[in-house]
Design goal:
The chain is of the alpha/beta class. The protein has a single domain, classed as TIM Barrel. It is 30% helix and 14% strand. The protein contains 13 helices and 12 strands. It has helices at 39-42, 138-142, 150-158, 181-184, 186-196, 214-222, 237-243, 250-262, 283-293, 309-320, 325-334, 354-370, 390-395, and strands spanning 3-8, 65-70, 86-89, 97-98, 108-110, 113-114, 143-146, 168-170, 201-205, 226-231, 267-274, 297-302. A 7-stranded mixed β-sheet has the order 4-5-8-9-10-11-12, with helices on one face. Helix 5 (186-196) packs parallel to helix 6 and helix 9 (283-293) runs parallel beside helix 12. The longest helix is centred in the last third of the chain and has 17 residues, at 354-370. The radius of gyration is 23 Å and the shape is globular.
Length: 397
């Protein structure tokens, strides 16, 4: 039996009822979720999270209280049912997000969804769910938010006076082709607007579902308005199933790459994230498979473990790769200045030190040998047509 209880964060009283069977709340904070010993108590039972990447649902960092699972020993409650995906509508006022980061190649992006059902345990976007009062753990992959007004907002923002054209990136935070896209079709509606006004777009995805929109993407590709990168973390189907449980299988991603390339869509591969002692041995194989499938460019990103992700990833390692857990974390710290993560610009994507240099050099040699070092494609920003503004439309009446 498992029971859920609220435990106060340091400096705050716990909300444990006086007649609670567990008695008064403990004075000290429970052990960190990263420690192997308490996982059986704090983790969500396996049958309740089947098909999910995270093991736990630790409260967000802005919450006053912390919720954990404890076994009270009675064994009178049935096992929890499988965790279901819930989607709520969000109505933002704007849809284009701006950034000024010097180590990424775009200054604007669109995310049709918050949270991602793919459940990739290493996803650097997980901490953003804390801003919604939710957990970066299982909540991130099961409590999602859709933005059904995204296309209308985009058209409005493109029509603003002074708008300067530059490629819009999609897939920079959560995957635009995660499973709920099949139902909501928000990504497709965004592409329809971009295509109508000749606005360039770049897409990164782990889903073969991107081929559903080949009709739009192939047309935009021929006009120099679109390029797609498929992210491939591993060619090992078993590893992929545990690490990114609801993303497309590696073979389907390579197949999607082939279909995109054959349809005339400039296609690349992202080897991301590279995880030392876990998938870094596959760099050359992934690049070779992508080149065979028609990819024309490649990139890589080293594993990033900001904020809550470091604990979530450690938990996952202890359950799924206990034999390699200590070595993986040791190598990560060797590339992050002795820390689990270094957020400094210029270092966060590639790391530092001998092991990081070795990964970069291997990638460089392989991409050159396979012809994947030619860089990306410069998209055409000269064809953009400004959408009619509301006042302009009324003037026609």
């Amino acid at each position: 039996m498992t029971a859920s209880h609220d435990i106060a964060r340091p400096g705050r009283p716990a909300r444990t009822p006086a007649n609670s069977p567990i008695g008064p709340a403990p004075a000290a904070r429970p052990p960190r979720l990263a420690d192997p010993a308490p996982l059986a108590k704090t983790g969500v039972p396996q049958n309740g999270r089947r098909g999910r990447g995270a093991l736990t649902n630790e409260s967000g960092r802005f919450e006053a209280e912390r919720r954990v699972l404890l076994d009270d020993g009675w064994g009178t409650i049935d096992a929890p049912p499988p965790l279901k995906t819930h989607v709520a509508n969000e109505t933002p006022r704007t849809i284009i997000t701006r950034n000024s980061s010097p180590d990424i190649s775009f200054d604007r992006s669109i995310n049709p969804y918050r949270g991602c059902e793919h459940g990739c345990v290493y996803c650097f976007a997980r901490p953003t769910h804390a801003y919604m009062g939710l957990s970066p753990g299982l909540d991130f992959e099961s409590r999602l938010f859709a933005k059904p007004n995204a296309a209308a907002l985009l058209e409005k923002e493109l029509s603003r006076k002074g708008y300067e054209v530059a490629p819009i990136a999609m897939g920079t935070n959560t995957d635009p082709y995660q499973p709920i896209e099949q139902r909501y079709r928000i990504t497709r509606s965004i592409l329809e607007v971009l295509s109508a006004y000749n606005h360039p777009v770049t897409i990164v995805t782990k889903s073969a579902r991107v081929t559903r929109d080949l009709d739009i993407l192939s047309d935009m590709g021929r006009r120099g308005l679109a390029k797609v990168a498929i992210s491939v973390t591993t060619l090992d189907a078993k590893l992929a199933r545990t690490m990114e449980p609801r993303a497309s299988t590696p073979s389907r991603r390579l197949e999607a790459m082939k279909l995109l390339s054959e349809a005339g869509v400039p296609t690349g591969v992202m080897v991301a994230p590279v995880i030392p002692a876990l998938n870094d041995s596959e760099i050359e194989k992934i690049l070779a498979g992508a080149a065979y499938a028609g990819a024309q460019s490649a990139g890589f990103v080293l594993l990033r473990l900001p904020l809550e992700i470091k604990d979530l990833f450690r938990e996952w390692l202890e359950e799924n790769r206990p034999d390699a857990a200590e070595r993986v974390m040791s190598l990560i710290r060797s590339m992050r200045g002795g820390k689990d993560y270094d957020a400094e610009w210029g270092k966060r994507m590639r790391g530092t030190g001998p092991y990081a240099w070795q990964i970069g050099r291997r990638f460089e040699i392989a991409t050159k040998r396979l012809g994947l070092d030619r860089g990306g494609w410069k998209l055409d920003c000269t064809k953009f047509k400004v959408p009619p503004r509301v006042g302009d439309q009324l003037a026609l009446l």
